[in-house]
Amino acid sequence: xxxxxxxxxxxxxxxxxxxxxxxxxxxxxxxxxxxxxxxxxxxxxxxxxxxxxxxxxxxxxxxxxxxxxxxxxxxxxxxxxxxxxxxxxxxxxxxxxxxxxxxxxxxxxxxxxxxxxxxxxxxxxxxxxxxxxxxxxxxxxxxxxxxxxxxxxxxxxxxxxxxxxxxxxxxxxxxxxxxxxxxxxxxxxxxxxxxxxxxxxxxxxxxxxxxxxxxxxxxxxxxxxxxxxxxxxxxxxxxxxxxxxxxxxxxxxxxxxxxxxxxxxxxxxxxxxxxxxxxxxxxxxxxxxxxxxxxxxxxxxxxxxxxxxxxxxxxxxxxxxxxxxxxxxxxxxxxxxxxxxxxxxxxxxxxxxxxxxxxxxxxxxxxxxxxxxxxxxxxxxxxxxxxxxxxxxxxxxxxxxxxxxxxxxxxxxxxxxxxxxxxxxxxxxxxxxxxxxxxxxxxxxxxxxxxxxxxxxxxxxxxxxxxxxxxxxxxxxxxxxxxxxxxxxxxxxxxxxxxxxxxxxxxxxxxxxxxxxxxxxxxxxxxxxxxxxxxxxxxxxxxxxxxxxxxxxxxxxxxxxxxxxxxxxxxxxxxxxxxxxxxxxx
Amino acid sequence: xxxxxxxxxxxxxxxxxxxxxxxxxxxxxxxxxxxxxxxxxxxxxxxxxxxxxxxxxxxxxxxxxxxxxxxxxxxxxxxxxxxxxxxxxxxxxxxxxxxxxxxxxxxxxxxxxxxxxxxxxxxxxxxxxxxxxxxxxxxxxxxxxxxxxxxxxxxxxxxxxxxxxxxxxxxxxxxxxxxxxxxxxxxxxxxxxxxxxxxxxxxxx
Lengths: 586, 205
What we know:
By secondary structure, chain A is an all-alpha fold. Helix content of chain A is 61%, strand content 1%.
């Protein structure tokens, strides 16, 4: 598609936004701590998410040390191992990725990219972050209570989650459930802001079908989260009542250590349905913003318009809708009706159609593009490769007959780490390299960036490709130690040791990345105003980083979509969204 | 449905470009705060819907023993309806710029809401007095949980209600608080609808 803006068009005046609507800080505390500016809130979200994410990373190192070198680290008991598995999973999925994509990128990019001065409900937006922070602190508190954090696995399945044989079945599980409920309350506050700002606060000319795909991804993911998190909220309340008051929502009649408990009649499968009604859309809550961001990174760094924009929008919306009818493919071995399995296998395969459409369109966007292999571009390409790999193993697991023997093996661990661990985090890295100049006014160091990319990308494959093989030969997940198992060869131990070494090296690369950020904030090369020559509004601000209110006195007016790159007949290879057609150099 | 209409547009057509360039304002012809309330209520609907689904699933298990609805629950229903009517009365007065009417409507509506919450507490005490105890009876556990969830939402509404009443007492005129009054009333009607569904569900099951 080329730029089709007609030559003659009536001039549209600047959009003036009354200053009265804008929040103004009056003290250091309200400017930097209890701040209502979405950009500050975004950074607060980002720092908190990265801090708790580092805890999750360290937990994964300890788990890998145990798996790679069993009996070498005596302090890692079986109980501790299960607790670390649980906390690592929950931290990475909820408190890191969801918070980063929606809380951090959402807050920073939505107002800037749609041409708004701030979120529509700044006070509620600020509360959203503080409730999230409390949720993180409650989660961390569970490390210090008697019995430690819950070791029920990140899915928290009852009845085992609240039975005394499971580590952290006392205060640990209750704190986890309370923390999740708080997270959902905080997210709902933020989510309302994201959705309503996108729907109602766009600047003049910024129609829905001119929005960058990053915004489409964040918008759809937020809608999914607003509809899916209530399932987790309800199940968290019910399980808390089962645990604390002794109700039997999910607890069947059960004997524990020879003693008949007072529970009876509850349905553990009901919990699984509720959990996965949240859990599967959660995959797309993480993936859809990644899809959107990758689309923009590819287009900008290949100097080429995104291929099939309208199809990309529909695919994002379609994937979002379909993600609500596939949840039970996580439950093929739960004992549910086999006909359910047939239905959910079919819907799971159908969701591959719009997903594949996006992959084709990304590839076609690169076709004949002027590809610049910048760090963000490297991460974006790495995402496509990784997401395809992870997605293909998802087709395996989506089919009942293949899934049943592979359930609870390392194959599943490898699959979901590739598709919703490595792939989205590659996008997070790409996005940080891309928007760091906007947020700080400085560039990240390129050499350290190259090191970070190659070690992370290659290292991730060294970790997870062999893990698929371990799963195929039957190595189970969540086992502290395999021990002497007849069907598992000794080579599995060597492979586990290899994976651990690779994981530690990849972990080291993340330390370099964080060092790069800290150093570059203070001493990085000063960034130009629009270093990537992007067209979207966040790069068209008066100052970099954008000041309070984002756009100076006059809000921008939009005349085209965000993908006018290499337009035939124009001098520059990009035309920003807010340049009037009369001023486009031809 | 403006949203679905908009995403069917073809932004590359020249005719569409002209329309898009002049386009200003949100996707819906409503103030942002009203859109925000509707989105929030959508989330609340999902919370209660999933709870009712869980309730009906749990009912199919053999140990399910229905719980009788004390007479006071019917009275509570009438009180909640009266609360909603009073709130609507406040809205009508706000639209006619009659501040005293707004004040009366809001105060009566809030008082009825508080009476409803007190009545719900009485229901719990009566059921306890009748010898039912939550942990051993799933029907009662669901009734308590859903009642509490609904009550928490009413308490949240009372915070917004309190702020609006304070603004009226602080000298604001009807037209200045009209938006807040309309939002409160809309929320009240919504919570009445939710309670009607829950109450009918309790009665049927």
